[in-house]
Design brief:
With 267 residues, the chain is α/β, with parallel strands linked by helices. It has helices at 29-46, 57-63, 68-78, 97-115, 121-132, 146-152, 165-171, 180-189, 203-211, 228-234; strands spanning 5-7, 16-20, 137-140, 161-163, 196-200, 216-220, 239-241, 248-250. The chain has a six-stranded parallel sheet. A two-stranded antiparallel ribbon has the order 1-8. Helix 6 links the parallel strand 3 and strand 4 (161-163). The longest helix has 19 residues, at 97-115. The chain is globular.
Length: 267
């Protein structure tokens, strides 16, 4: 009979945990990146720019963890494009920032309808273990799809609260790297940041956790690139793991090599 996993030492001093959604709980960061590529490449082509959007490096550098508008503006400016913001009702296109955003949303929603989205098993295991230890959890996301994705994935019941893009808009919370999303989630859980851990895969999110004074900032390095772990640490991660499941230790293996995996990966 398999022993129940226990929390790694780094988590035993925290009283609450706030997790990012895309890339940490749901396997949706790649879907967002692919949708942005379709929207950005059409815009770049219309402007006569040949260098396409890189769904790994450009997504991580300019878009990941940010609101749609902030991410779109950051990438387009990096390519020398200063598009007008446009109107909220702009349809999918290339002439305004909001038209590019609308095209991205169109592509993302099409993927969800046709393929759905998966969750990361290690994150689900961690949520179950935290629930068993009576450690309340919340999820945050700059995406307005987060609650919908968490519901469809069947993990919403493991979360005390969700502060998604819709809530950020309603409360006028600034996007990452400002810590406002995480601070609001910690407030809803009823614990100060110093007693709360943040689990995040995006560089702006890790920076937000550090700026917010959270007691533990855990970076999730899904890309396993040559510098990605070091970049997460450089933005404020105390610990870097390849998957949240590494934050669990099987009872019979406590004290073994598994413990090293939560003390930081080589960058």
């Amino acid at each position: 009979m398999t022993a129940a996993p226990v929390l790694a030492p780094c988590l035993r001093s925290v009283r609450a945990v706030v997790l990012d959604t895309d890339g940490v709980i749901t396997d949706s960061a790649g879907v967002h990146a692919s949708a942005w590529k379709g929207a950005f490449d059409a815009c770049l082509s219309a402007a006569g720019i040949r260098e396409p959007f890189d769904p790994v490096d450009d997504y991580r550098r300019y878009v990941d963890g940010k609101s749609r508008e902030d991410g779109a503006v950051a990438f387009l400016k990096a390519r020398g494009l200063d598009l007008p913001l446009g109107d909220p009702g702009d349809g999918p296109g290339t002439a305004t920032v909001r038209a590019v955003e609308a095209r991205k949303e169109q592509l993302f929603n099409r993927h969800l309808r046709e393929h759905g989205v998966d969750v990361w098993p290690g994150a689900v295991r961690l949520l179950h273990a935290l629930t068993a230890e009576h450690v309340p959890c919340a999820a945050v996301s700059a995406s307005r799809h987060a609650t919908e994705l968490l519901t469809a994935a069947g993990v919403l019941g493991l979360l005390r609260s969700v502060v998604d893009g819709n809530e950020a808009h309603r409360l006028r919370l600034p996007g990452k790297p400002d810590p406002a999303l995480f601070l609001e989630a910690a407030r809803r859980l009823g614990f100060p940041p110093r007693d709360t851990a943040v689990v995040e895969d995006a560089l702006p999110g890790v920076e937000a956790g550090r700026r917010g004074g959270f007691g533990l900032v855990i970076g999730v390095d899904r890309t396993a690139g040559p510098t990605s772990a070091a970049e997460l640490r450089g933005h404020g991660a105390d610990v870097v793991v390849a998957d949240p499941g590494e934050l669990l230790i099987e009872e019979e293996r406590r004290g073994s090599v598994n413990r090293r995996s939560v003390n930081g990966r080589s960058g």
